[in-house]
Specification:
Oligomer: single chain
Helix content: 40-55%
CATH class of one domain: Alpha Beta
Largest sheet: 7 strands, parallel
Strand content: 5-15%
Structural class: alpha/beta
CATH topology of one domain: TIM Barrel
Distance between the termini: 26 Å
Order of helices and strands: HHHHEHEEHHEHHHEHEHEHEHEH
Bound molecules: coproporphyrinogen III
CATH architecture of one domain: Alpha-Beta Barrel
Radius of gyration: 19 Å
Low-confidence stretches: none
Number of strands: 9
Number of helices: 15
Length: 350
């Protein structure tokens, strides 16, 4: 163990005062980095996820390149679907494909309700990554994560990415019993998976409900909220902060807060001060630069980062991030510049 750790991210999650605003980036390990592409030339994504040495190595790549205040374990939200009985493949260009999607109550009944141990390789990767982080001069915390049940259900039912969620909403509206049974199974698996990540050394966990913004508030309340609430309340005794993230959620923020989370993730479609106004001051907020801003010239990036800082106006509990993940063609130097800008623009005289 080295001297001082960098704990501004953990402090911000708890809305405690910080020396400057913490920053990390969703998808901070990925194809925009040459060193990641190099690993991917040799190994497919599932192999990287399932080999703790590779996962830990990729987790560390952005830590070595960017001035960030948190690392996130390299894995994928879809991994738990495999031991549940779904045949998952990442095909080049097409993204994730599930060859045997769940379409009805029989399919839901056939799913295995696995425990956290079924993804032991993720726990092993967390232990390894923690060891590597602790060797750094000023160690930063490690984030674990899982998909939220709605977003996982959308992949399990559609069989891949979707535009209109026709099968997903079809089950929700046409067979609510099957829907709630599926959400219940996913919630159980996600809870135990996150618990095992925390026990392996994840200091914060993020629940990714990336596609939940396709629902209206009534459907969110009826078909999603109770399940997310169940996951978050089950993890309360683990005492690690929970980040609850979604996109397209401007009309769902209050309900997401009701579902739970110490930090609510907000995308760029909402001004961060409006989002915070709606959430109230008793929760931390993560966000919310449009990832496409990173393709703009540096002065324009700076203008937009400054605008977020101005809107936040030093409220305690801001974690700077993008509103969604870094895109593959993003210039690395622009990501580096944003991390630096956030620290400079928010530095408090001590
Ligand atoms: O650095 C990090 O943020 C950690 C790694 C991470 C990955 N996936 C690795 C990955 C995280 C946090 C995820 C979460 C994830 N995976 C989400 C939620 C976040 C979001 O972006 O909304 C979702 C919806 C998935 C499902 C998924 N996995 C998709 C849609 C794809 C294809 C995307 C693409 O651009 O091709 C993946 C594959 C995947 N998982 C990649 C990475 C870095 C793509 C790069 C590759 O193929 O090497």
């Amino acid at each position: 163990m080295n001297g001082q750790s960098n704990d501004r991210f953990l402090k911000a999650c708890r809305r405690e005062p910080v020396d400057c605003t913490p920053v990390w980036f969703m998808r901070q390990a990925g194809r925009y980095m040459t060193e990641y592409r190099k690993i991917r030339e040799q190994y497919d994504i599932l192999t990287v996820c399932k080999t703790p040495e590779l996962s830990a190595e990729v987790t560390m790549q952005p830590v070595q390149r960017l001035d960030i205040d948190a690392a996130i374990i390299f894995a994928d939200i879809l991994l738990p679907l495999e031991p549940m009985g779904l045949n998952l493949e990442f095909s080049a260009g097409e993204g994730p494909v599930i060859h045997n999607p769940v379409r009805d109550s029989i399919g839901v009944s056939a799913l295995n309700e696995v425990d956290g141990d079924s993804l032991r390789y993720v726990g092993d990767a967390i232990r390894l990554a923690q060891r590597r982080l602790q060797e750094q001069p000023c160690p930063i915390p490690l984030i674990g994560f899982a998909g939220a049940p709605f977003t996982l259900a959308s992949y399990a039912i559609e069989g891949g990415a979707s535009r209109n969620y026709i099968y997903t909403k079809g089950m929700m509206y046409g067979d609510p019993t099957a829907w709630h049974a599926l959400m219940g199974k996913l919630s159980h698996v996600v809870t135990e998976y996150l618990r095992s990540q925390i026990h392996a050394g994840a200091q914060v966990v993020q629940l990714f409900d990336s596609w939940v913004g396709c629902l209206n508030p009534d459907d969110y309340r009826e078909y999603v909220l109770p399940h997310v609430q169940q996951i978050i309340s089950s993890l309360r005794n683990e005492t690690v902060p929970i980040i609850h993230f979604g996109t397209g959620t401007a009309t769902l923020l209050e309900l997401m807060k009701e579902a739970g989370g110490d930090v609510i993730g907000v995308d760029w479609r909402t001004h961060i001060d409006d989002a915070w106004q709606c959430l109230g001051p008793d929760v931390a907020v993560q966000g919310n630069l449009d990832p496409v801003t990173l393709f703009a010239p540096i002065p324009e990036i700076r203008r937009r980062v400054s605008d977020i800082m101005r809107r936040v106006a030093k409220r305690p509990g801001h974690i700077f991030n993008l509103g969604h993940g870094i895109l593959p063609q993003t210039p690395v130097e622009h990501v580096q510049a944003v991390a630096k800008m956030v620290h400079e623009l928010s530095a408090n005289p001590s």
